[in-house]
């Protein structure tokens, strides 16, 4: 690849991405509070505990769990407990995901509300009637029957006020990450009441280790009436978001994990993201559920607290008919490339048993797909290289007449049927693929902590070796900015060799600048995921093989 063409391609690709983001990305809700929405909820109706200010205590998570009676739950993927105080899901650990390769401790997502890392989910009914007692975050629920929640063994919680109204919750758990909550209110009085169903996710603080990368959203997220809503934590600290919708879901997303609520089906609801000493994502139905005298009302909502595995997320979206639930994984605006690319890599992983080999296999497939375009480009570049002596001769002959030189050069290009910009084409079409692969490696949990061979233990992380300690042969560590691993070095070497196959710039200064371009990219790409560097290296090798083959078969008419 001609270095000038590489730079031009990167510049053009960047411009395309910027322009797309400015003019073509679907506009998200610009009004933080939809003032024009038809708010059917009374002014004084809100989710319970929304204005409460719990005092955070300096105790361990383990001690916090012991403060209240709990119902344990467990399946093949998660383990945790539900607090009988408030009937909240506030303790959940993923059994199959470690904090790091060096730390075998499992990932814990949810925690009790009264500690700094508090992160929980609660649900229930609200009412505009201030004269009736309803369960809130301090209510102590009782258990009827089964006292452990497992797959196929739901639990039943109940609480009765002293006014003749019984509240029940039946909570069931599937074999993965889904809680189904059937809520019921039984009225044994002669009075009539209106109730509104609600659910909310509460998080006390911004999580540590927030990525803060522009390519990844972390924080409150929802799809409401086909519109993707992504709010940053600092945005809702400044101003809350609110919207009424008839379908969708809401949640709080991390890089690899999601806590989400799916409101009752066929029910209009109002979703709010706000901050009141803690972050909240909640919904409340807009139409009252009428509880007649001696009557019963019930509804069902779903809670998914999941690792963002593509098959799991897509499975829930399809089986539960959750609108655009697959967007909990941040595929980005190149969705139409990124997600199919993941499926391609995953296919080869299932075939070969290693994601590194899968990346190499998909690289070969991409090269085959672009083969005709690359052939056209390389034939043109081969002719350009063969014409270098003639171009130098023309520059010397017409060095004082720029107009004449331009005319002669254009005539030469026309005679040999050469397009000097053709070298950009393979790069331009591959740049989106490169970005998409980076996205796949960065956001999909399937790639997390997956090894290649040798020293690459995690394809989603940088190559841990460094040329500055001879890749670990010398007994000292180097600063992070000097960690330039073996694979980035191999990529840089392959790029340098490839550069030698291309026509050199005729300008001496340009030639010197471009000579350092492989070194520049080696340093720039060293911190990138090793899987991406492997892709680039293999792609360079395949490109060189194709280019050498074409150059040997390409001739020009002009003789110098």
How would you summarize this macromolecular structure in one to three sentences?
The protein has 560 residues and is of the alpha+beta class. The chain has helices spanning 3-23, 61-66, 233-238, 310-319, 335-352, 355-369, 371-386, 388-397, 402-416, 424-443, 486-500, 508-515, 517-525, 530-553, and strands at 70-74, 78-83, 88-100, 103-110, 119-126, 142-144, 148-150, 155-160, 165-173, 178-187, 193-203, 219-224, 227-230, 241-245, 248-253, 257-262, 269-275, 279-285, 289-291, 296-307.
3D structure, described in words:
This protein is α+β, with helices and mostly antiparallel strands and 560 residues long. It has 2 domains: 26-332, Beta-galactosidase, Chain A, domain 5 (Distorted Sandwich), CATH 2.70.98.90; 338-385 and 421-553, no CATH class. It contains 14 helices and 20 strands. The protein has a 9-stranded antiparallel beta sheet, with no helix packed on it. Strands 5, 11, 14, 17, 18 and 19 form a 6-stranded antiparallel beta sheet that branches. Strands 4-3-2-1-7 form a 5-stranded mixed beta sheet, with no helix packed on it. Helix 1 crosses helix 10. The radius of gyration is 30 Å and the shape is elongated. The chain starts with a helix and ends in a 7-residue tail after the last helix. Mean pLDDT is 83; it is low at 1-13 and 15-45.
């Amino acid at each position: 690849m001609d270095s000038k063409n590489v730079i031009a391609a990167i510049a053009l690709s960047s411009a395309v991405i910027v322009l797309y983001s400015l003019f073509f990305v679907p506009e998200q809700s610009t009004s933080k509070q939809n003032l024009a929405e038809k708010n059917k909820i009374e002014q004084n109706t809100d989710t319970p505990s929304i204005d409460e200010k719990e005092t955070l205590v300096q105790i361990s998570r383990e001690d916090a769990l012991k403060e209240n009676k709990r119902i344990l739950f467990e399946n093949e993927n998660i383990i945790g407990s539900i607090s009988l105080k408030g009937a909240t899901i506030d303790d959940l650990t993923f059994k199959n995901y470690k904090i790091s390769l060096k730390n075998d401790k499992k990932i814990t997502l949810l925690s009790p509300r009264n500690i700094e890392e508090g992160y929980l989910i609660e649900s229930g009914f609200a009412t505009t009637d201030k004269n009736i007692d309803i369960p809130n975050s301090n209510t102590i629920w009782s258990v009827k029957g089964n006292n452990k929640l497992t797959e196929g063994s739901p639990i039943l919680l109940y609480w009765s006020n002293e006014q003749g109204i019984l509240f029940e919750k039946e909570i069931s758990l599937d074999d993965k990450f889904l809680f189904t909550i059937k809520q019921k209110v039984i009225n044994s009085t002669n009075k009539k009441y209106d109730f509104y169903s609600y659910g909310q996710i509460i998080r006390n603080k911004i999580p540590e280790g927030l990525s803060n990368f522009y390519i990844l959203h972390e924080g409150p997220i929802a799809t409401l009436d086909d519109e993707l809503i992504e709010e940053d934590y600092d945005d809702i600290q400044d101003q809350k978001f609110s919207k009424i919708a008839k379908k969708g879901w809401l949640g709080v997303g991390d890089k690899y994990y999601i806590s989400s609520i799916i409101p009752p089906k066929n029910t209009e609801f109002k979703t709010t993201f706000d901050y009141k000493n803690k972050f909240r994502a909640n919904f409340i139905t807009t139409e009252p559920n009428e509880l007649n005298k001696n009557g019963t009302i019930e509804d069902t909502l779903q809670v998914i607290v999941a690792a963002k595995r593509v098959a799991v997320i897509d499975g829930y979206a399809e089986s539960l008919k959750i609108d655009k639930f697959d967007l909990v994984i941040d595929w980005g605006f190149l969705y139409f490339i990124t997600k199919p690319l993941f499926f391609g890599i995953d296919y080869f992983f299932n075939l070969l048993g290693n994601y590194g080999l899968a990346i190499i296999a998909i690289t070969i497939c991409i090269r085959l797909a672009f083969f005709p375009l690359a052939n056209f480009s390389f034939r043109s570049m081969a002719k350009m290289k063969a014409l270098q002596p003639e171009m130098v001769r023309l520059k010397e002959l017409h060095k004082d007449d720029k107009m004449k030189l331009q005319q002669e050069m254009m005539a030469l290009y026309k005679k040999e049927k050469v397009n000097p910009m053709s070298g950009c084409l393979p790069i331009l079409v591959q740049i989106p693929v490169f970005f998409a692969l980076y996205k796949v490696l960065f956001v999909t949990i399937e790639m997390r902590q997956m090894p290649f061979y040798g020293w690459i233990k995690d394809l989603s992380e940088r190559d841990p070796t460094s040329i500055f300690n001879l890749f670990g042969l010398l007994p000292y560590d180097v600063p992070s900015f000097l960690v330039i691993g073996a694979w980035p070095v191999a990529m840089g070497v392959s790029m340098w060799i490839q550069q030698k196959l291309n026509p050199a710039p005729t300008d001496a200064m340009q030639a010197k600048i471009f000579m350092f371009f492989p070194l520049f990219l080696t340093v720039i790409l060293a911190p990138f995921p090793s899987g991406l560097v492997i892709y680039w290296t293999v792609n360079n090798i395949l490109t060189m093989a194709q280019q050498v083959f074409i150059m040997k078969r390409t001739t020009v008419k002009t003789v110098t």
